[in-house]
Specification:
This protein is of the alpha+beta class and 119 residues long. Helices cover 56% and strands 15% of the residues.
Length: 119
C-alpha cells in the first residue's frame, strides 16, 4: 500500500510541469508551422508541400501532366502522404514535450497514435 504512495512525488512533479505545457505547445506549433513536408505522386508529375501542421503551402504539376486523367488522384495521394508525415512529426514533437516535462501519462502514446492514424 505504501509503495503506491511513492508515486505521489511523480504526480506532484507532473502537476508542477503542467504550467509549462501551454507555452511549450505554442512553441512546438510555431516550429511545426515553419517546417515543410513535400510528397510526390504520379512518378514525380505532382509535388505537394504542406507545413508541419498540415496547411497546404504549394502544389506543383508538371506541364505534361496537367491534362492527365489521373491528375486529381495524384494530387490527393501526394497530399495524403504529406499529411500523414506531418501528423507523425507533430506527434513526435508532442511526445518530446511530454517527455521533457516528465508528463508520464498512461496511455499517452495510444492517444497520439489514434490522432495520427496509428495504433
Amino acid at each position: 500500500m505504501f509503495k503506491a504512495l511513492g508515486g505521489l512525488g511523480n504526480i506532484s512533479s507532473m502537476l508542477g510541469n503542467l504550467q509549462h505545457i501551454g507555452p511549450r505547445m505554442q512553441e512546438v506549433a510555431g516550429e511545426m508551422r515553419q517546417q515543410r513536408i513535400t510528397a510526390v505522386a504520379g512518378q514525380g508529375a505532382v509535388e505537394v508541400t504542406i507545413n508541419g501542421i498540415g496547411e497546404l503551402q504549394e502544389v506543383r504539376v508538371l506541364e505534361h501532366a496537367r491534362q492527365h486523367v489521373h491528375l486529381e488522384i495524384w494530387i490527393i495521394e501526394a497530399t495524403n502522404t504529406a499529411g500523414a508525415t506531418a501528423k507523425q512529426q507533430y506527434a513526435e514533437a508532442i511526445s518530446r514535450v511530454a517527455e521533457d516535462l516528465n508528463l508520464n501519462v498512461p496511455g499517452f502514446d495510444a492517444i497520439l497514435g489514434s490522432l495520427t492514424g496509428g495504433s
